[in-house]
Design goal:
Helix content: over 70%
Strand content: under 5%
Radius of gyration: 20 Å
Shape: extended
Oligomer: single chain
Number of domains: 1
């Protein structure tokens, strides 16, 4: 698989937002597929002998299923964003501005403040 082309992301550009969301969606789909492959390989290849083996297999499966769960959450978040855009008649800017769950400049300011406090403590 070839390496994806780097692109410049513009915060105020609808096309840039669309391409980023598409890339995130594709990565989530690949993550789900890979996690399921891992679970299938573990099931097919493993022959547990004792309880310790079963515990290790269960942990590996749990880790893979957590990855799959996070990918599903990402896809649901993209669906919510898409729903918001449709509610605003395709106006991406209005949908993003009216969505309190998305990161805004205020969120970045709060994150910067938290990082500065952590740096001063260390």
């Amino acid at each position: 698989m070839s390496r994806p082309k780097k692109q410049k992301i513009e915060v105020s550009s609808a096309e840039s937002l669309q391409s980023v969301i598409q890339e995130v969606y594709n990565n989530a789909c690949h993550q789900m597929t890979d996690a399921q492959k891992i679970v299938n390989v573990i099931d097919a290849a493993a022959t547990p002998v004792d309880v310790d083996d079963l515990t290790k297999l269960a942990k590996s499966k749990t880790d893979a299923l957590k990855l799959k769960d996070s990918a599903i959450k990402i896809k649901l978040d993209i669906g919510k964003l898409q729903s918001d855009v449709i509610k605003h008649s395709g106006n991406v800017k209005a949908a993003v501005d009216n969505n309190p769950e998305l990161v805004s400049n205020e969120n970045f300011d709060a994150i910067r403040d938290m990082l500065r406090k952590d740096e001063s403590k260390n």
